[in-house]
Amino acid sequence: MDEDTEIWFQALAGRTTADDRREPALEARALRERLLRMPQTDAAVESSADADREAALLQRARREGLLADRVDRRRGLRLERLLRWPALTALTALACSAVTVAILLHPAHEPEAVRGAPGEPVRLTAADPQQLKSELLAELKSAGVQVTGYERLGREGIDADLPQPPSARVRAILSRHHIEVPPDGVLRIEIAPPAAP
Amino acid sequence: MRACREGGAAIEHALRQLDRAYFRVLVREAMRGLRDPDAARDLVQEAFIKVWRRCATFQGDSELLPWIKSILRHALLDRLRKDRREVALEDERGMTEEVRTQVEELSTAQVPAPDLDARRHQLDECFHRCWGRFQRAAPAHALVLSWIVEDELSHEQIAALLGRTPGATREFISQCRKRARLHLAEWYELASGSS
Questions:
Q1: Partner B contacted by A65 (CB < 8 A)
Q2: What is the complex's ipTM, to 2 decimals?
Q3: How many domains in chain A?
Q4: Would the CB atoms of A73 and B180 count as touching at under 8 Å?
Q5: Same domain for A90 and A118?
Q6: Range of the domain at A176
Q7: Residue A178 belongs to a domain
Q8: Residue of B1, B25, B38, B49 to mutate when probing chain A, most A C-beta within 10 A
């Protein structure tokens, strides 16, 4: 970018410089003033009926699986009721034994990654989901990615906003975990233990 | 954002709130780039869905609107990129010989208005026509230019929005100026003649 364009750019953004009387600054200031006076948009567009708009938004959210958590929530409530059942202790002990036997019979294996439909999270399988989550969080954070881990209803998950385009380091991390680079830069991962045989 | 992170039945309510709080400001932004009410509404909806998907990455101590706005702007630029390919300009001023001749003919054809109001009206009308031409020919450039004005963006902020390197961003800004000069030439000339 040449000097004139830099002067033009700074003046367009409303920043004053020593070159304010030069032609590019005058040109930019005229444009800036005119654009700031421009009406924003047709009022009719903004005033579309709230109810219709919201219904359409919720419908789309449902279509894209965003409201699926309601189902999880209901399941969660059912689980809460179940946990109050007197046989809780016996059930827990039985489940723990089954998991222990399964782990002993099937040693830890490489995590698997399954890419869901577009917009769906990548589903990883790992013997220790929590540990894999911690590893991924640490690796992505060290590569400068904005990343958040969560645990929701017993499911480990990661949400990340990848820089666009993702750096070679980020790509290498994802590749190591068999995760495809999401085209929109939004990476959602869910990690679960392997299904019992 | 809390409802988003927690999931559950509060999501519907929170989505409604999001729509009520930000639809107007976002659709205004979308209209500026797309100039089609249906496409603008659709894009805002798409942005809300993205906001929801990315809510886990929202930093609670930052302001919500700029964050949501940046998601919309990314979506807007993506939409514009899909719709068209950029065309390189020919000369230093950003005008081909043919266009320059046309612009000069148009400019000299302007008849000076007899009074101030008429003159102002003529300038406004000319600007709208020129800006419309700019938006149709180079929508992404016109849009980014208006964001620079509105939000006083820095090089770094533009680079982040475009997803480009600092060098490529400087080139983009340079193209913005060239294209603005090309499409607004008639208005520049008229405005400078009336000042």
A1: no
A2: 0.72
A3: 3
A4: no
A5: no
A6: 112-192
A7: yes
A8: B49
Same domain, A120 and A91: no
User: Residue A31, Cβ neighbours under 10 Å: how many?
Assistant: 26
Same-domain check for residues A86 and A122? no
pTM of the model: 0.54
Neighbours of B171 (CB within 10 A): 14
Is the distance from CB of B11 to CB of A70 less than 8 angstroms? yes
Cβ pair A66:B23 closer than 8 A? no
Give the domains, in start order, of chain B with CATH numbers: 2-83 (1.10.1740.10), 97-194 (no CATH)
Tens-digit pLDDT profile for residues B28-85: 889 888 888 888 889 999 998 888 887 766 766 567 888 899 899 999 998 888 766 5
A138-158 pLDDT, tens per residue?
A: 888 888 888 888 877 667 888
> Closest Cα to residue B20, out of A128, A84, A52?
A52
| CA–CA separation, B133 and A13 (whole Å) | 22
> A-chain residues within 8 Å CB-CB of B50?
184, 186
Confidence of residue B3 (pLDDT cuts 50, 70, 90): low
* A:22-51 residues touching chain B, CB 8 A cutoff: 24, 27, 30-32, 34-36, 38, 40-42, 44-46, 48, 50
CB contact under 8 A, B12 and A67: yes
Give the dihedral of Cα atoms B132, B134, B137, B140; nearest 10 deg: -110
Site of tokens 């070679």: A168
